[in-house]
Amino acid sequence: MSTDIDPRQIEEARRQINRLAEEIAQLSEAELAPAEYYGEFLQRLMTAIAAPAGAVWIRTPQGNLQLQYQINMRQVGLDRFPNSRQMHDELLRQVAMGGQPRLQPPQSSVGQAEGNQIAPGNPTDYVILLAPIIYDKQVAGIVEIWQDPNRGADAQRGFLQFMARMASLASGYTRNHQLRQMVGQQQVWVQLETFARLVHGSLNPTEVGYHVVNEGRRLVEADRVSVALRQGFRPQVIAISGADVVEKRSNLVQLMRALFEAVIDWGEKLVYSGAKDDALPPKVLKALDAYLAESNSKFLVVMPLPDERETAKKKKARSAIMMESFETSQDLDQKAARLEVVGRHATSALYNAAEYRRIPMRFIWFPLAKIQDGLGGKAQAIVTIIFAALVVLILAMIFMPYPLRMDALGTFQPVKRATLYPPVPGTVKAIAPWLTAGKRITEDHELMQLFDLELRKQINDLRQEINHADNLINTLSKSQDLQDKFEVAKQRINLRAKNEELIELARRTNANLADPGAFYLKSPISGVILTADFKEVLGSPVKPNQPLLRVGQVDPNNPRLADWEVELKIPQKHIGQVLRAFKTRNPDEELDVDLLLKTRPTAVFKGKLRRDKIALQAQNERDAHDEPEPVVFAWVRVHGDDIPPGYRIPLEELVTSTEVTTRVRCGDRAMGYSLFYGVWEFIYEKIVFFF
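Now predict its structure.
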């Protein structure tokens, strides 16, 4: 049998191998995806060297080898023994570390195992040919071929050399693919930079929303992108890509808003890729069904956009984004990943815009911010504002007029009132039983009965003198003696004088001549009893300077403001300010007085203080610390047409001795003096006057 090989077959095989090599070279220059390129590459390589099985391993960024493409790999027997796969993986790792082509005979190992590690080797019945794909002096991948062990050693080495040459072409593809990826990434980064600049370049929520949907749609390469912003308790669709205006009443927008609301309440990302997940919350599932019935979306993602400032407070997301594709494609995961990037930028931009919109009275804060920038920063602005405020405050204290008001305490009193004193010393024997505080009495009403031994003696002495004079007159009146007639005339004069003295004593003391020593306390005016504790003097000795009762001329059944006034006790240190407030010496000139009643502390009433209603003498009174304090009495008018009706004291508040806090208006002075006159007077008295 002849063993000669036909040269034409050899030439045909060489041409086929060269053609396959040229195709691999052309594939390496084409813009193909890695999976597509390595599939075509491995098929042509195995055809060129007639290999039964092959695989391409690509090194991941973490340094691990990952299977990219394989042909008939299961047939070589890598899983025949328990440690076969580990032995093969160690062989690939050694080639990746060494970076040199390797031919590994069947059922062989390389070196000894270290510790518990499996020795690298070939556990299969085939010859393993390994050629590394070198890129940038690093192993980027490995081309692995399982070859028939019956082939000659020279043929196997030739196959390995051919694989190394093809691996260099794959290195060229890797370089070109990396360059294309870098260019694509650069384009993506440019688009992303433009997107970030636009969405963060405005604080208007609507403008930000339209930048997000229009620029985001180009980045994600989706058919439609929409954004919703929660305003109050419900989200509103603020922007839809490709639409200049959002028709909020349209059925599509209403269903979209309902879907946004359901997903925001749920708080998780919704992904729909053609099949609905029955595990979704019922509200989300219902909103999704309603929206899909209106929209023809084949791929849909609704993603809440919770800002970190919201998640810290455990609040619902303020905004959400929706991406839709109307056609199915292979890059859905890539679109979802890009949407994540778009969402991260949109989250803070929409949150900032919403927070900015919530700032009240922005038209005031903007000019203040410009002033702050013009002054050179926050610290300089604060210092300048404080300094300017102090200057304005000082100027206002000096030049701005402000009402000067002097405080004084007072009480309600009837205009006409009388204090009853005993005319002579005595002892209170009786008080009219019907007499009580507030009881109405008439003039000359007998209120108390008193008794005095000295008064009885005076009355009895006068009566004895009157009787003695009367007896002398009766005895001497019949005599014709001139001396007796003269004595009679003298006694008649004395009798008349003693009778008049007795009558005057009885009138002055309201004495009861039928009961010598007894006398009465009578009211000089008609009115009501003002004193409440007058019955305590019953049985006690009293003196002429001791007040027993106070009577006010008022009518409880017909109260009138004209019958009342406020009795003030103006501190002596304030009386000068009050007197200087009168512009003229006209006694009819009046000052306004603010009245605050203890019985009605939430209302301010008005009164008038005449110049001639101010006493000309100071009296000592006790202050809250029981210290003597000189005061000047004054009386304030509370009735008259010049007092507005709304500032007149109600009639039901007219109660005697009701305490009133008052402020006498003393005209306008500099604000600083009006507010701090006490401090200025203290400084002047203690410091300026001292020097």
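The longest helix spans residues 153-199.
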